[in-house]
Design brief:
Mean pLDDT is 79; it is low at 261-271 and 297-303. The two termini are 28 Å apart. By secondary structure, the protein is mainly alpha-helical. It is globular, with a radius of gyration of 19 Å. Strands 1-2 form a two-stranded antiparallel sheet. Helix 1 runs antiparallel to helix 10 (210-216), helix 3 (62-86) runs antiparallel to helix 7 and helix 8 runs antiparallel to helix 11. Helices cover 76% and strands 1% of the residues.
Length: 303
């Protein structure tokens, strides 16, 4: 396994751990999800400023900075929507719908980076769409509302663009430079929630949960691994390997559910693992097909 593949595998591992942490924190540790977003964003902003202060910025153009800037901006908007939905939906259900994003990334990479893929890759895109469609079918309490479904599709599309912008940032900047601008913008965007008076009142009370917020910020490691992977692999491959994230989330949801106290309510919501396995397996198969040709160095670039 080369370093690019290793980083691509580690990224969804950290993201998955962060997703489970976010769900637990906003369900049991923080009263106001938006105040959590502010505290979370503050940590990101400080980390980004510290990193930026020790890097060499000579020769960096303004245009190059736009890619991680807009990546962080999109990421911040996604986080607002994600935290709102995660308050009532299971983490694995949410991530299942969001997995439309490899198709978006593949399309953008084809148009702007001249990445050309074979029929297996495009068949994989179809598998992803089919899997997401199955997840959208209401099966008792496993279903979600049409409004939430629409928001999840929007988040998926935004993540696809965000991932593509990360790739562009690694082309125009060093990985650490891109990471610093990305998380500075991300943190600043999250802190815009302070315009709400209820959020401002909640932050001083919820700041006591800072250690839990730091646990949720393990996703910084996921972002960093994503940048390092993007610098070494194609955007389509990195986004496709990200399918491992849903596996990590399901495993940790299931393990934590088994450990909950007898008679207590599940911290992640009602567990119905098996109904998810078929659509999630289809999604996993699809993203694996998308990445298969690249993983075996069969990707071709248009001349």
């Amino acid at each position: 396994m080369n370093s690019g593949t290793l980083f691509a595998v580690l990224a969804p591992l950290f993201w998955g751990l962060a997703d489970v942490s976010h769900k637990y924190i906003i369900t049991h540790k923080i009263r106001n999800g938006m105040s959590y977003l502010v505290i979370w964003g503050g940590v990101q902003l400080i980390a980004g400023l510290i990193l930026a202060s020790v890097l060499d910025w000579r020769g960096v153009t303004f245009t190059a900075l736009l890619f991680p800037f807009f990546s962080g901006l999109l990421y911040g908007i996604e986080s607002f929507l994600y935290i709102t939905i995660l308050k009532t939906e299971e983490a694995s259900h949410v991530l299942g719908f969001i997995y439309l994003y490899p198709a978006v990334t593949a399309l953008l990479s084809w148009v702007f980076l001249n990445e050309v893929h074979g029929p297996v890759t495009y068949a994989g895109v179809l598998f992803v769409i089919i899997g997401v469609t199955f997840l959208s079918i209401k099966l008792g309490r496993q279903g979600i509302t049409l409004k939430v479904f629409g928001l999840l599709l929007l988040i998926g599309a935004m993540i696809g663009v965000h991932v593509f912008l990360v790739k562009m940032a690694t082309i125009r900047l060093g990985e650490l430079q891109g990471i610093s601008i990305d998380i500075i913008t991300l943190g600043a965007t999250m802190m815009l929630a302070l315009v709400s008076a209820p959020v401002r009142r909640s932050v001083p009370r919820d700041i006591r949960c800072l250690p839990w917020v730091l646990l949720g910020n393990i996703e910084l490691l996921g972002l960093a691994c994503g940048y390092f992977a993007m610098a070494r692999l194609s955007a389509t491959v990195v986004s496709s390997i990200g399918a491992l994230q849903i596996v990590v989330v399901i495993i940790f949801e299931h393990v934590l559910e088994q450990k909950r106290e007898k008679g207590s309510n599940s911290y992640l919501g009602e567990r119905r693992l098996f109904p998810k396995l078929i659509p999630l397996s289809i999604i996993m198969a699809g993203v694996s097909m998308i990445s298969s040709q690249d993983l075996y160095s069969l990707i071709a670039y248009r001349q």
